[in-house]
Amino acid sequence: MARRRAPSGMWTTVTRRRTLAGYKSSPDTTPTDNHSADYAWIRDSTAFGGLASEAANASRIALDTEFHRERTYWPNLALLQLQIGNNIYLVDPLEVDVAPLADALDSNATFVMHAAAQDLEVLERACGTVPKNLFDTQVAAGFVGMTTPSLSSLVERYTGVRLPKGDRLTDWLERPLKPNQRDYAANDVRYLFEVHDRLLADLKQLNRQDWATTECQRMRDRMKPNVAPELAWTRIKEARHLTGKARCVAALLAEWRERTAQSRDVPTRFVLSDLALVGIAQRAPRSTSELKSVRGFDGRYLKDTNGTEIIELVEKGLALSPDQLATLEPDESPQLDKDLRAAVTLVSAWISQVAKDEALDPALLATRSDINDFLRGSPNSRLATGWRSDLVGEPIKDLVEGRAALAFEKAGLVLEQRGNTTFKNIEPFNR
Asked: Could you tell me if residue 250 is inside a domain?
């Protein structure tokens, strides 16, 4: 195990990859295929050290990852794909510790990625940090009229190349990887620079470069941190609905389950299902025999000392009061006024029209939750700042405060000035 200080100042544990039992390394040979001379297979620390140095001095890097987490708590990095200049690299993290890539991630290089949300979590785990400068092609495409496009659709639109479909059931931890698997992985970065260039040109033409940059940075900044184990109960809907001692028991069980899953590196459901957890909290069993009768409780959960630990946690939970539990920071914003609830649906319809007229991904412009937050005055509302405020935030204020009204025309919904009120935002939408 290695530890690296992340940008937040917190220490992040980085797992150094070990050769799997029974695993045979693939030779350092390039498979024979159409792109056989186009990428290098990196599987030793010396070669990766050179690659990491090259990356740290690059101005632009295309990056993708392949990983699995179906049977683990932490994402299990299986392959790292990079393009630097004209060179494509496939890095085998089962043989190489990829943590040295952190210097490049922390540099001023632009990392071009597609649908990067989960990749960021993988990089944080493997390298202790995420790209300082991120350009997500899927996010950027939302500003030029596309709705969460796949990489293959973007590549075909901008390069004319139809990427072969991959096997969704591919085991990326398998070694050696087949030539077609390596080709598929290389294609995930092969065209990202060209797509990046074309998207930048489209964004510039629409004067939306800053919008895309801001949104990509927002994605980077809002990457979900691991929830503190003591707050794990807040992610279980049924547990949040419990009251009194039952909630206390549920909170302790959820914390224990989270820590156990992390230490064993297994999904939380492998330790204890949500159904069983809530059932135990409600029935408060005092013995393993009573425990076995709880709905959803599987006898396999009694392996090792789990049964004894669960009974002890029930007893501890019954001794607590709800005000002793760790909870999320309360939202101090006022609740949405009941008179404005109808406005959410009305505004949502208008937002969809604006997105269509402005060639924007509707989900990128505003979700129903965004509208709700804005109307109730949440300080963290996305519609209250930046490009969203200019485009729809201020007009929504005029609408709900009576200075503007919605009307139907052949082209759809339009926002119109009401009475003698001067509405400065009407022009972009009244087309």
From this structure: yes
Which pLDDT does position 14 carry in this prediction? 38
217 shares its domain with 236: no
Catalytic residue status for 188: yes
Q: How confident is the model over 246-297, as pLDDT tens digits?
A: 999 999 999 999 999 999 999 999 999 999 999 999 999 999 899 999 999 9
Write a three-state SS string for the chain. CEEEECCCCCEEEECCCCCCCCCCCCCCCCCCCCCCCCEEEECCHHHHHHHHHHHHCCCEEEEEEEEECCCCCCCEEEEEEEEECCEEEEECCCCCCCHHHHHHHCCCCEEEECCCHHHHHHHHHHHCCCCCEEEEHHHHHHHHCCCCCCHHHHHHHHHCCCCCCCCCCCCCCCCCCCHHHHHHHHHHHHCHHHHHHHHHHHHHHCCCHHHHHHHHHHHHHCCCCCCCHHHHHHHCHHHHCCCHHHHHHHHHHHHHHHHHHHHHCCCHHHHCCHHHHHHHHHHCCCCHHHHHCCCCCCHHHHCCCHHHHHHHHHHHHHCCCHHHCCCCCCCCCCCCCHHHHHHHHHHHHHHHHHHHHCCCCHHHHCCHHHHHHHHCCCCCCHHHCHHHHHHHHHHHHHHHCCCEEEEEECCEEEEEECCCCCCCCCCCCCC
Residues 214 and 361 placed together within one structural domain of the fold: no
324, 358, 382: which is the final residue of a domain?
Answer: 324
Query: Are 37 and 179 in the same domain?
Result: yes
Spot the catalytic one: 89, 184, 191, 301: 184
Same domain, 274 and 370: no
pLDDT in tens, 346-386: 899 999 999 999 999 999 999 999 999 999 988 889 999 99
Among candidate residues 66, 124, 202, 215, the one labeled active-site is 66
Residues 42 and 120 in one domain: yes
Catalytic residue among 136, 188, 202, 215: 188
- 239 and 361 assigned to the same domain: no
Query: Does some domain include residue 430?
Result: no
Active site residue 339: no
Same domain, 306 and 349: no
Q: Are residues 57 and 193 in the same domain?
A: yes
| CATH code at position 203 | 3.30.420.10
Q: What is the pLDDT of residue 358?
A: 94
Residue 427 lies in a domain: no
Q: Decide which of 222 and 228 is more confident.
A: 228
Active-site residue, 64 included: yes
Catalytic position from the list 39, 64, 124, 398: 64
Q: Domain containing 30: what range? A: 2-221
Q: Is the pTM of this model over 0.85?
A: no
**What is the domain count for the chain?**
3
Catalytic residue among 119, 183, 202, 215, which?
119
66 is catalytic: yes
- Better-predicted residue by pLDDT, 158 or 35: 158
